[in-house]
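DM from R.C. (forwarded with permission)

"hey, sorry to bug you on a friday — could you get me a structure for this? deadline for the figure draft is monday and I only need the backbone to look sensible"
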Amino acid sequence: MTNVDTMLGGRLDGLQRGALVIGVAFLAVTGAGLFLDPGQFFRSYLYGYVYVLGLSIGCLALLLMNHTVGGKWGVVSRRLFESGARLFPLMALLLIPVLFGLRSLYLWAMPEIASHDKVIQWKSPYLNVPFFLVRMVLYFAIWSAYAFILTRKSLEQDRTGDPGLVIRMRQISAPGLLVFVMSATFAFFDLLMSLEPHWFSTMYGAMFLVGQVLETLAFIIAILVMLAPRPPFSEILTVRHFHDLGNLMLAFTILWTYLSFSQFLIIWAANLPEEIPWYIRRFSGGWGVVAGVLLIFHFFVPFLILLHRFVKRNPKLLQMVAVGMIVVRLVDVYWVVMPAFYQDEFPLHKLGFRLHWLDFSAPLGILGIWIAAFIWQLKKYPIVPIKDARLIGQPKEMVGGLR
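My reply, with the result:
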């Protein structure tokens, strides 16, 4: 179980080059949109950015969770989690276009609107540009610190084999998980919920965070299945690992649905004029069709499929479910973000589902850059924790069907 450079270099190099070419090409196309349609550029870029940011946030969430609660599923996946979590500096750099577009995206950042809106004025001690920038710096500093500290401890375990490092990483991760959940929740409040400053939901941040963790689980499963036939994964991965990861994806699917439905039920039952418009916009016109698609393919289909044990123990089938979830998560982020920019359009029943070519190029460009950087990080260190005792002596119920 040596470095990824000697075992998986060719496969990962090809994937990295392809992702980099796609990322650069689509970002260049997206950049042209800044001059052709600046407003649409900022909207599409924000939605694509939040989707990809969710992969790094999800990697850190799963890394902290596994160090806290244990589980062999996290040991074999740890270096993938660490690689994704170490990309927060890159995501901070990619946030810059959003910061330049604050006055095009957020009503509270538009002086001509904020000066005449009593609700925005009341929230202005929190919703103002300088404090927004300070919070963004704070979030990324916290996330990056945990990612690099845990990576350093993990690499120290590779060098020394000290079993006490498992306890130390747990001691860091347990309180870190609380700090992370709070910071990620407020980050989603700031980046997304504040697009509609008259609306609020205390469940919004948790709902979106669970969705991003689900997106990351699906991505990690898809990558592990691709790497499973080659050493060192062919020597350590078993169907039990995929079964555990499939159970996790099922659990987070149920949790996402529970939080989403609970938020909807509470707001719809209360029927308050400052809360209900959020759902009216997203259930009106073409957006209502998208909501129906999400209900079917974000909950019912994966839920019914993942209930079956044989699916979770068949990596190829599980990978198909994971790829579907990756796509559906992109649709969900689009459904959450885009209707916020059409708040003043009436009649609502004619509010159509809209697609712009920037809605495709922006997420593909950012995702391509992220995957290329992810693989670069993955190749820097041994691709599995080579001296973690939990990888030694496990039963050889190998994933032979992938060979």
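R.C.: lifesaver. Confidence is low (pLDDT under 50) at residues 395-403.
me: no worries. The chain has 19 helices and no strands.
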